[in-house]
Amino acid sequence: MERYDNAFAQLKARQEGAFVPFVTLGDPGPAQSLKIIDTLIEAGADALELGIPFSDPLADGPTIQNATLRAFAAGVTPTQCFEMLATIRQKHPTIPIGLLMYANLVFSRGIDEFYAECARVGVDSVLVADVPVEESAPFRQAAMRHNVAPIFICPPNADDELLRQIASYGRGYTYLLSRAGVTGAENKAALPLHHLVEKLAEYHAAPPLQGFGISSPEQVTAAIDAKAAGAISGSAIVKIIEKNVDKPEQMLAELKTFVTEMKAATRKA
């Protein structure tokens, strides 16, 4: 969890927001996936949000579902994902690493064992997409036991009670939804959510990162203008992978350009 605190403190000192890319581990295959992650970090990613391939991803649009299918086709398993995470952590000791995943993957290992494994390989946070705050106790308690930050989604229609719970239980960062629905770069992020950001700050929530539909530097700037601590972009990045599956070098070059431009948009004028 300390890696998030350190990262946000350093960004604040430099007057920058965070740019956080999302990719699915093992897409399009384990070796290229590790190269992709190195490229994202070298191009300026401030933290990583990584998915573990899952057979029934409810909150994901077609782009991320296809990433999962490519990883499955390459034979990627959750055990292999943890091995990859250990490799990433060894190579990049300071970057915050978050997992975005589904409850079945946690249950299949055993809740406590899952978070113990996260701690062992150097994962800083876990967001379980299909577990609402009110059902999160066993997950967040296991997370805290192993010094892994439990991350919660703050939807655009969150009421006061939910905001208080998110602020109370969440650590690391708060995942601020641009809008309801499934992920996807086509579903453009709506107007920045000033009131939610203000309320979260009032209740001392972990710094909010805006996600869902973030695909352009302008949207990153808008998120930061709305006082979000940064932005998360997934589908737009995974599209670059999808488009260049047969051109691995071109893929890395395009990812580098995209992340560099998105990161530049986090620097406050």
From TrEMBL:
Sorted UniProt keywords: Amino-acid biosynthesis, Aromatic amino acid biosynthesis, Lyase, Tryptophan biosynthesis
Pfam families: Trp_syntA (PF00290)
Positions annotated as active site in the UniProt record: E49, D60
Keyword set includes Oxidoreductase: no
Biological or metabolic pathway of the protein: Amino-acid biosynthesis; L-tryptophan biosynthesis; L-tryptophan from chorismate: step 5/5
Molecular function per GO: tryptophan synthase activity
Record flagged with keyword Lyase: yes
CDD domains assigned: Tryptophan_synthase_alpha (cd04724)
GO cellular component: cytosol
InterPro entries cross-referenced by the UniProt entry: Aldolase_TIM, RibuloseP-bd_barrel, Trp_synthase_alpha_AS, Trp_synthase_suA
The enzyme's E.C. designation: 4.2.1.20
UniProt record similarity statement: Belongs to the TrpA family.
Function noted in UniProt: The alpha subunit is responsible for the aldol cleavage of indoleglycerol phosphate to indole and glyceraldehyde 3-phosphate.
NCBIfam families per the UniProt record, alphabetical: trpA
Known partners and oligomeric status: Tetramer of two alpha and two beta chains.
Entry protein name: Tryptophan synthase alpha chain
Source organism (scientific name): Enterobacter huaxiensis
